[in-house]
């Protein structure tokens, strides 16, 4: 194939991800995670993440190249997450990408992390319909995007006004004494619980905006659990997990479909770590089917942060004829889309 070979680097949070893509084909990727080092703090510690990226960068690039079966000299372009994310963590990836681009004499593309979460789906399901709506839900972001073109035109319609959806999962898991990150634990616990056991609040449910709010829900769950504990009664962990999860998933799917309806868009993409949630996948499938909306959700390994998503967007930018970034492109922790 004469499509360019793009190497992508992701270091915006606690995952050091490297992916190698040609067109819409993922040739190989590798990932190193510092998640275990953060577990005892109950959240990602920026300094710890930055140091882990520094240690993991070179070996992870080597592993990705080996898996893809390509030599470094064969790479035609380097893409890297320039933001948003943790400043120190981003800086490690951006510095490495600049060094690689300079050493190879190849163009550098600093890309937006959220747009990359959208672009990655093309590696699994082919070209994204134009326009699509994207719901991105992770530990760091909860956004609704209108995507006329993932390379050139991604518009933020709404985002969370307080906690991200994944952050709420992580905090509620902590209240329930489950592990970190909390999403998978809640997902598992909820399977044996009743989603209607408690009526937890659904923030900004029908407020006419495309924004989310999860901190009121998180606080309501914490109060409920504390009251139980004060009364010396056992906490029904499965019921709390299921009822909390139902509230989050109800709001996410409802708003995503409202965006589709109000903008006349028939294709919805869900991405980010929370897209691994089994109840979110099931409810999205039901509600999309009822609304006549086609649903795309990448496999879980492509939903959580990874390098392939950055390479996928890089390949898209090259194909669109976008200008490369200058070699002094900054890491920007609050990079707008
Ligand atoms: O995309 P991601 O790997 O990293 C960020 O950019 O934040 O997302 C991580 C988040 C965590 O908050 C984690 O608890 C959540 O995704 N998560 C889940 C599930 N798996 C991961 N949330 C709900 N259900 C899951 N099965
Ligand atoms: Zn992410």
Automatic annotation (TrEMBL):
Domain of life: Bacteria
Annotated localization: Cytoplasm
One Pfam family here: TsaD
Note on cofactor: Binds 1 Fe(2+) ion per subunit.
GO molecular function annotations of the record: tRNA N(6)-L-threonylcarbamoyladenine synthase activity
Homology family: Belongs to the KAE1 / TsaD family.
Name of the protein: tRNA N6-adenosine threonylcarbamoyltransferase
Organism name: Actinomadura alba
Gene: tsaD
């Amino acid at each position: 194939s004469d499509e360019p070979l793009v190497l992508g680097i992701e270091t915006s949070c606690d995952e050091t991800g490297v992916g190698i893509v040609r067109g819409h084909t993922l040739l190989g990727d590798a990932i190193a995670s510092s998640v275990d080092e953060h577990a005892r703090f109950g959240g990602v510690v920026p300094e710890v993440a930055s140091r882990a990226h520094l240690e993991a960068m070179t070996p992870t690039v080597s592993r990705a190249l080996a898996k893809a079966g390509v030599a470094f000299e064969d790479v035609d372009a380097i893409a890297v997450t320039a933001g948003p994310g943790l400043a120190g963590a981003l800086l490690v990836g951006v510095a490495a990408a600049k060094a690689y681009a300079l050493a190879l004499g190849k163009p550098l593309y600093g890309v937006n992390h959220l747009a990359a979460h959208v672009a990655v789906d093309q590696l699994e399901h082919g070209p994204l319909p134009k326009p699509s709506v994207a719901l991105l839900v992770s530990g760091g972001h909860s956004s609704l995007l209108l995507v006329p073109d993932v390379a050139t035109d991604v518009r933020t319609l709404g985002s969370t006004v307080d906690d991200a959806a994944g952050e709420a999962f992580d905090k509620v898991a902590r209240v329930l004494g489950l592990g970190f990150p909390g999403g998978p634990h809640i997902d598992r616990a909820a399977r044996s619980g009743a989603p209607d056991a408690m009526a937890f609040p659904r923030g900004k449910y029908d407020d006419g905006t495309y924004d989310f709010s999860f901190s009121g829900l998180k606080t309501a769950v914490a109060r409920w659990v504390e009251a139980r504990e004060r009364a010396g009664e056992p906490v029904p962990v499965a019921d709390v997990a299921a009822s909390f999860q139902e509230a989050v998933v109800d709001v996410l799917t409802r708003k995503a479909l409202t965006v589709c309806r109000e903008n006349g868009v028939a294709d919805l993409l869900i991405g980010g770590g929370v897209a691994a949630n089994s109840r979110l996948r099931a409810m999205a499938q039901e509600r999309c089917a009822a609304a006549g909306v086609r649903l795309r959700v990448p496999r879980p390994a492509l939903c959580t942060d990874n390098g392939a998503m950055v390479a996928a967007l890089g390949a898209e930018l090259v194909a669109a004829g976008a200008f490369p970034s200058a070699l002094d492109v900054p890491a920007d922790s609050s990079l707008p889309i």
